[in-house]
Structure formats: C-alpha cells, structure tokens
Write a structure and sequence with these properties.
Number of helices: 5
Strand content: 5-15%
Largest sheet: 7 strands, mixed
Number of strands: 9
Structural class: alpha/beta
Shape: extended
C-alpha cells in the first residue's frame, strides 16, 4: 500500500501505463489523474501527443513538465496549489484551461498565457464547487482579463461572445437592476414608463436558408431519433434481464 501511495505522489511511467493501458507514453492522447495526491508531475512531459489532461484535485505547484505538451488542447488544473503558469506559454494548442481553486494572486500571473492564440475558454473560479483564486477578489479582475485575452469566448463558465452571450448579458442586467433596488420593503416599485428590454422579434427563432445548416438540422434530428430507439431497446433488454434474474432467485419447488 505504501509503494502505491508513493507512485501516486509522483507521476511515473508505471502509473501512466497502468492508468491508460498504453505501453508507449507517446501513444497517450487522453489522461485523467484526478484526486490522487500528486505533487510531482514526473515524466508527464514524455506524453508529447497528449491532447486532454485532467490533474484536478491534487497538490501540484510546479508545472514545468507540461511545457513540452505542444498538442494539449484541454487542461484541468483546478483545486491544486499553483501560483506560476509560465510553463504553459509553450502549450500552443491550448484552447480550454481550468485553474480554479489555486493561488493565482494577480493578473500579472496571466500575462504568460496572452500569446496562446487558440485559448478561448478560461476558468479561474467555479461557484459550483466554491473554487476561486485570490486574483478574483480584485474588482477589475474580469475587465482586465477580457482586455488581456481579446479572443476569449468563455470566462469562468460565462459566455462572452457567440450564440447565447446576448441572452446571458440580458439576464445579468436584469439581476443587477433588481439587486440595485427595484424592490422596496419587499414590494416591486412600479415604473409606468418602462420600455421593453428587447424588440418584439428578439425571441423568434430565425431559420437560415443556408442549405448546409438545414442539412445539419436534419442530421441532428436523425441522430436524436436513433438515440431514442437505442434507449427504448436498452430499456427493454434491461427489463428482460431483471425479470430473468428475479426468476432465478426464486426457490425451486419440487412436487412430491
């Protein structure tokens, strides 16, 4: 048991091979090492073709071995002890980075990521798990990060641009207005001169005439239909199996 614990504290070739079933470390594309008590990344840098890596819930502070992972696109480092992100500057393919629940103290620590042109999703806090970083307490944190990463699409799980961003901003504005004092003594203050938030046609679903999009709608519906059929078949098989097992458990009766 002691040797196994030691292996988990440091990433070794034995640990990687046992976790993935791959004999060659360069063949590993996806890797999940969540909550193992790891503090030393060891030979993780030898997995040069790694694309998705989950190291959340460990005791990691030094990211130097990750510098060689040029193909890494999704990286989860939440709930660790990380303060320096500099080794990630060479992860050119990085698109999605989760560093919530660490000890990033200043926006200056994020400058090393500014050169990552493909980076579009960054998370420094996660309200679901109550993960955050000291930098998030800065009143200008959000503004500074958005200026630093002009191509970002999602920050802390909130869509900044693209489909859904307008709706999100609308809901946020409504919440902020309510918090600002629309209610007095538990009663909603009436404003007869209020104008609609959006135009009447805002909520209408506009179907595109683009043939490619129409075909995509059709293919999606076909896949959805197949999923429903598979679900029905699976339910039927499970029901038959449960019925068969219940019959086997019944005590046999012998006629005398």
């Amino acid at each position: 048991m002691q040797d196994f614990h030691a292996d988990c504290e440091k990433i070794t070739a034995v640990l990687l091979k046992s976790r993935t079933g791959e004999f060659d470390l360069e063949s590993i594309l996806f890797l999940k090492l969540r909550g193992l008590g790891i503090h030393d990344l060891g030979c993780i840098g030898e997995c040069i073709n790694l694309e998705r890596l989950d190291l959340s819930g460990n005791n990691i502070s030094n990211l130097a071995p990750l510098a060689s992972l040029r193909l890494l696109s999704v990286l989860n480092l939440s709930a660790n002890r990380i303060s320096n992100l500099d080794p990630l500057r060479s992860c050119d393919s990085l698109q999605n980075l989760n560093i919530a629940g660490n000890v990033i103290s200043s926006t200056e620590n994020l400058h090393c990521l500014a050169s990552l042109r493909k980076l579009e999703n960054i998370r420094l806090k996660d309200n679901t798990y109550n993960y955050t970083n000291p930098v998030c307490r800065n009143a200008l944190y959000r503004t500074v990060v958005l200026e630093m990463f002009p191509n970002i699409k999602v920050l802390d799980g909130e869509r900044i641009v693209g489909r859904g961003s307008d709706l999100y901003q609308l809901c946020k504005d409504i919440d902020d207005t309510i918090k600002a004092g629309l209610y007095k003594n538990g009663q909603l203050i009436e404003h007869p001169d209020c104008k609609p938030w959006v135009e009447d046609s805002y909520w209408e679903i506009k179907r595109s005439n683009n043939a490619i999009i129409e075909e995509a709608y059709k293919q999606f519906n076909d896949v959805l239909h197949e999923c429903r059929l598979l679900n029905n078949r699976a339910t039927h098989v499970i029901s038959q199996t449960e019925r068969s097992m219940s019959l086997k458990k019944q005590p046999k009766q012998f006629a005398i």
